[in-house]
Design a protein that fits this description.
By secondary structure, the protein is of the alpha/beta class. The chain has 9 helices and 10 strands.
């Protein structure tokens, strides 16, 4: 069992996780958690032992210079805590790392140990996949869970997927078996422009997360970056007639499929988000960081380094 002595009592804590790799098309999901960490000035309080879960021939450590001394940073998964201020403050436990190379069940059990010790009430796992979706339309975001009651209460889909899965699917099922409510939010990234970054998909994930956990997320430069990204892809598509024709076919298919719900729940959700941002939701300046817990164990892999 993981013991975190001296951890502050967290307020309605939610764990938000994302992992680089197979479940992270365009780096959209991991960038979303990195954005939360940056905007709310999170500090790492724990890191999993890299040697337990990673193949260093697949995920290479990096060498860097610190005051003339060569050091090594090992690939791993790190956790931080941030407090969202305002009238109803709550804490987020941010988990960001790389999809592990091995021992996935132990990996999930270790993360669930942290969730248990920190009193996490909900786990939200972000992912991104490649899809037949046009870059000119809103990014499709699907919310899924294995819990039928949770699906009804939070207006989510009860997952029926069968087939190969990544660490997002494994962690969600581990949460379900442990009795921890868990949700996965997936962004669909256009397969014809899959290279990172994709700020439009990152922005869509953060907007859906904001609705799900009822907090106001400071977006910083993301909206502007998303617009610039779309303009750039527009220009590239216009230079190739076959790509432009293909994008048009995707647009027609998307518009036909989604026309019945265009004036329904999606518009209502967008209007609620507008009102929340206009009428006194807490700003980025209202966020403060709770006292940081001590590092578990004798060493912290986030800081673990040695001379080359």
């Amino acid at each position: 069992m993981i013991e975190l002595e001296g951890v502050p009592e967290l307020i309605d804590p939610v764990m938000v996780a994302a992992f680089e790799g197979w479940n992270d098309a365009g780096d959209a999901a991991s960038t979303a958690v990195a954005h939360l960490d940056k905007e709310w000035k999170g500090e790492v309080f724990a890191a999993l032992d890299a040697e337990d879960y990673y193949d260093f021939q697949v995920n290479r450590p990096t060498v860097w210079m610190d005051a003339g001394v060569r050091k090594i940073t090992w690939p791993t998964t790190r956790l931080s805590v941030v407090r969202v201020g305002g009238e109803k403050p709550r804490d987020l436990v941010l988990v960001r790392g790389i999809e592990p190379s091995m021992r996935w069940r132990s990996f999930c059990n270790e993360l669930l140990g942290f969730a248990h010790e920190l009193g996490v009430e909900l786990v939200v796992i972000l992912g991104a996949l490649l899809g037949d979706t046009p870059h000119t339309r809103p990014v499709p975001i699907s919310g899924t869970t294995s819990d039928a009651d949770l699906a009804r209460r939070m207006d989510l889909e009860e997952t029926k997927y069968e087939g190969p899965t990544g660490i997002v699917g494994i962690l969600q099922e581990a949460c379900t078996h442990a009795g921890v409510p868990a949700v996965s939010l997936w962004a669909a990234v256009p397969h014809y422009v899959s290279q990172p970054p994709n700020p439009k998909a990152t922005l869509a994930l953060l907007n859906r997360l904001e609705d799900l956990i009822d907090v106001r997320i400071p977006l910083g430069e993301l909206p502007e970056d998303a617009r610039a990204w779309q303009v750039g892809v527009d220009q590239l598509a216009a230079e190739d007639s076959e790509v432009a024709e293909y994008v048009q076919s995707l647009e027609e298919a998307r518009d036909t499929a989604e026309l019945p719900e265009a004036s329904g729940e999606a518009i209502a959700r967008e209007f609620e988000r507008y009102l929340r941002r206009r009428d006194g939701g807490p700003s980025a300046g209202d966020r403060t960081r709770p006292p940081m817990p001590p590092k578990p164990g004798a060493r912290d892999d986030d800081e673990d380094s040695s001379e080359d």
